[in-house]
Specification:
GO terms for molecular function: DNA-binding transcription factor activity; transcription cis-regulatory region binding. The chain contains ten helices and no strands. It is mainly α. The longest helix is centred in the middle third of the chain and has 28 residues.
C-alpha cells in the first residue's frame, strides 16, 4: 500500500498568485493604452477642455484614482495621444519608403496611410485637438515630430521631381498642401458617413495628384461643340 504524501510536500505547494514581472508589464501597457484611447475618443467627441478624468474613468468602468496608476494628469494623456498619432504617421511613411518602387508610388502609399490614420482615434485627436492645450515643452516635442514628417514628405516629392514622375513644384509648398489637405479629413470624417476611410483616401489622393481641371486636349476638344451650338442658336434667331 502506497504511503500518503505529506500535506506540506513540494508538489502540494500552490503557485504564486502574483504574475511574473513581464506579464504585469504587458498588462499595464494594455490598460494604459485603453486609458489613452478612451480619452482620445472623448477629446474628439467633446473637446479637450470639456472632458474630465472622471468621465474617462466612468467610460472605462474604473475609479478616478485608478487612472493615476497609468497617467499623471490630463495634459500627459493629450501629449501621449498626439505623440501616438504622429508616430503612426512616421511609421507609415517609413514603411512606404522601405517598400520600394518609384518615388511617386512611395508618396501615394504614404498619403494613403496618412489619410487612414487621421480617421483613427489618435490621428483624429492630433488633428481635432492638436498641440495648443499642451504645456510649452510638450508643444516643442510635438512640433519636432511634425517637422520630421514634413521633411519625409518633402524628400519623397523631391525624389519624384528628380525621377520625372512629378512636376517641378516647390517641395516645401507641395508638402504643406498635401499634409494640410489630408489632415483636414480628420476634422470632417464620420464613421457613420457614406464613405469609408479607404474610399475617402482614394478620392482625396486622386484630386491632389491629378487636380480638378481637365487636361488641355479635353478642354480644346469641347470647344468646337460649343462654337457649333452658338452657330445653331444664331441661325434660329434669324
Amino acid at each position: 500500500m502506497a504511503k500518503a504524501r505529506p500535506k506540506n510536500s513540494i508538489q502540494d505547494e500552490p503557485s504564486s498568485p502574483w504574475r511574473k514581472a513581464g506579464e504585469r508589464t504587458r498588462e499595464r501597457e494594455i490598460k494604459r493604452e485603453a486609458v489613452l484611447r478612451t480619452a482620445a475618443q472623448l477629446f474628439n467627441e467633446k473637446g479637450f477642455h470639456a472632458v474630465s478624468l472622471d468621465e474617462v474613468a466612468e467610460r472605462l468602468n474604473v475609479t478616478k484614482p485608478t487612472l493615476y496608476y497609468y497617467v499623471k494628469n490630463k495634459d500627459e494623456i493629450l501629449a501621449e495621444c498626439v505623440r501616438s498619432g504622429l508616430e503612426l504617421m512616421q511609421e507609415a511613411i517609413a514603411r512606404s519608403d522601405e517598400a520600394g518602387g518609384t518615388a511617386i508610388d512611395k508618396l501615394i502609399a504614404a498619403m494613403r496611410k496618412y489619410a487612414e490614420i487621421v480617421t483613427m482615434d489618435f490621428g483624429k485627436c492630433l488633428i481635432r485637438v492638436g498641440e495648443d492645450p499642451l504645456p510649452p515643452e510638450s508643444r516643442r516635442a510635438v512640433r519636432r515630430l511634425k517637422a520630421e514628417i514634413d521633411r519625409e514628405f518633402r524628400h519623397l516629392i523631391e525624389l519624384g521631381i528628380a525621377e520625372g514622375s512629378l512636376r517641378a513644384v516647390d517641395p516645401k509648398l507641395a508638402a504643406f498642401t498635401l499634409a494640410g489637405a489630408l489632415s483636414w479629413i480628420g476634422r470632417w470624417y464620420r464613421a457613420d458617413g457614406e464613405l469609408g476611410p479607404d474610399q475617402i483616401a482614394e478620392q482625396c489622393i486622386g484630386v491632389l495628384m491629378g487636380g480638378l481641371a481637365l487636361p488641355p486636349k479635353a478642354t480644346v476638344a469641347r470647344a468646337p461643340r460649343a462654337t457649333a451650338a452658338k452657330r445653331v442658336a444664331k441661325k434660329a434667331a434669324k
